[in-house]
């Protein structure tokens, strides 16, 4: 694997990323880049972030050896990095606390965000509540129907779509901070999200070393916008002995066009202010993604049920995709080998969707 510079040159990782935004936003994203560069070198900012991550979000999250699941599969040892136990029920809080602290430092009083599955919206609302900032969250209508529980958990205004959020930001640049929840958006957002989520990989490296006195053989994380995956993988960038697996949702199959595998089956395109891989039609129009989960197949439902039954842990559907892959992988690996799966969130929000899929009335 080619190692890229830690600081994206001209805001790019290789040729990807960059800044594809209207001129009116350039000053705002440059201001953000500068503020972040200063903040990360300021011991007070680092201390305050560490305080909120531990005292408010409940970090470090445990690294749990899933002994029952391991025994059932009869292959590699499976560990779970329990981001589902972070406050709010997902990894999203690592990033929202970091960026909300940054917003405060920049003198912004209002934070806007846009959310798919709702977890990022919830994490934004709670981080802003803790830090005394006003939060407004935009969410698509379809996602609102699927994720009623999260809609209720966000007591703030919900409106439709990412474009609305961008429109809002352009109109209220002075007062408003746009808090992005995945590795998307113009530079410096992907770098910021990577850095704030790296707490996952840094913790797990140390915890794994303590338990097994070596590094894991494989890391597995689901990829929606990429934040829990990069947070897990980045601290292992220079460890070639550790295999990194990012798992996308294949929905009803790659050939069906009803999936969410932008990296596996998409093409290069400019989207959300950056050059990336996107699902698009022959005319370059962005296609809707499809998966059983709002954030990201059906093997995921099987993994959801197996983990619930074997370990008493109900995972969110997004990491259930990662778990489904890890279960297949574990069977092919030796018993002395090890896999760590990032369990990016808990499954309360998905119980109704799974019951519906299985034809169970609740
Ligand atoms: C629990 C959970 N995991 C994963 C994701 C996918 O996001 P990302 O790839 O940025 O981690 C989401 C999205 O909302 C989520 O709620």
Q: What are the defining features of this structure?
A:
binds pyridoxal-5'-phosphate; 2 domains; Rossmann fold; 362 residues; alpha/beta; five-stranded mixed sheet; four-stranded parallel sheet; 15 helices; 13 strands
Could you characterize the architecture of this molecule?
By secondary structure, the chain is an alpha/beta fold. The chain folds into 2 domains: 14-54 and 92-195, Rossmann fold (3-Layer(aba) Sandwich), CATH 3.40.50.1100; 59-90 and 198-358, Rossmann fold (3-Layer(aba) Sandwich). The chain is 44% helix and 15% strand. The protein is built from 15 helices and 13 strands. The chain has helices spanning 23-40, 43-56, 67-73, 92-105, 119-131, 141-146, 148-153, 162-171, 189-197, 199-212, 227-233, 262-265, 298-311, 317-332, 351-357; strands at 12-13, 16-17, 63-65, 77-82, 110-115, 134-139, 158-159, 176-178, 218-222, 243-247, 267-271, 274-278, 338-343. The strands form 4 sheets. A 5-stranded mixed sheet has the order 3-4-13-9-10, sandwiched between helices. Helix 4 packs across helix 5, helix 4 packs across helix 9 (189-197) and helix 9 crosses helix 11. The longest helix has 18 residues, at 23-40. It is globular and about 55 Å long. The protein starts with 11 loop residues before the first strand and ends in a 5-residue tail after the last helix. The model has no long low-confidence stretch (mean pLDDT 89). The site of pyridoxal-5'-phosphate has 21 residues, from helix 5, helix 11 and helix 14. Pyridoxal-5'-phosphate is lined by residues 90, 116-117, 119-120, 182, 222-229, 295-296, 316, 318-319, 344-345.
């Amino acid at each position: 694997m080619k190692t890229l510079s830690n600081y994206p040159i001209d805001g790019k990782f290789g040729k990807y990323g960059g800044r594809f935004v209207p001129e009116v936003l350039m000053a705002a994203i440059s201001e953000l880049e500068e503020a972040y560069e200063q903040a990360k070198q300021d011991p007070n900012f680092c201390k305050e972030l560490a305080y909120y991550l531990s005292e408010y979000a409940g970090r470090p999250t445990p690294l749990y050896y899933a002994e029952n699941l391991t025994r059932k599969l009869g292959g590699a040892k499976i560990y779970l990095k329990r981001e589902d136990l972070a406050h709010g029920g997902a990894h999203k809080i690592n990033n929202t606390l970091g960026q909300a602290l940054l917003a405060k430092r920049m003198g912004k009083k209002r934070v806007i965000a846009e959310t798919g599955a709702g977890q990022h919206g919830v994490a934004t609302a709670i981080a802003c509540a803790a830090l005394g900032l006003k939060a407004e969250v935009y969410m698509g209508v379809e996602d609102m129907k699927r994720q009623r529980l999260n809609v209720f958990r966000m007591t703030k205004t919900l409106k439709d779509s990412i474009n609305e959020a961008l429109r809002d930001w352009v109109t209220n640049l002075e007062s408003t901070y746009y808090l992005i929840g995945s590795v998307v958006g113009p530079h410096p957002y992907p770098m910021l999200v990577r850095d704030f989520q790296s707490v996952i990989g840094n913790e797990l490296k140390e915890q794994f070393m303590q338990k097994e006195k070596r590094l894991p053989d494989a890391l597995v994380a689901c990829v929606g916008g990429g934040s829990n995956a990069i947070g897990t993988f980045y601290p292992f960038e220079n460890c070639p002995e550790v295999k990194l697996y990012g798992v996308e949702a294949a929905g009803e199959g790659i050939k069906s066009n009803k999936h969410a595998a932008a990296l596996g089956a998409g093409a290069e395109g400019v989207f959300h202010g950056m050059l990336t891989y996107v699902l698009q039609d022959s005319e370059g129009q962005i296609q809707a993604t499809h998966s059983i989960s709002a954030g990201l197949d059906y093997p995921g439902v099987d993994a959801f049920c197996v983990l619930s039954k074997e370990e008493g842990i109900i995972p969110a559907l997004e990491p259930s995709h990662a778990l489904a892959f890890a279960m297949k992988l574990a069977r092919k690996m030796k018993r002395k080998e090890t896999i760590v799966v990032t369990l990016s969130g808990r499954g309360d929000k998905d119980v109704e969707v799974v019951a519906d899929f299985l034809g169970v009335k609740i």
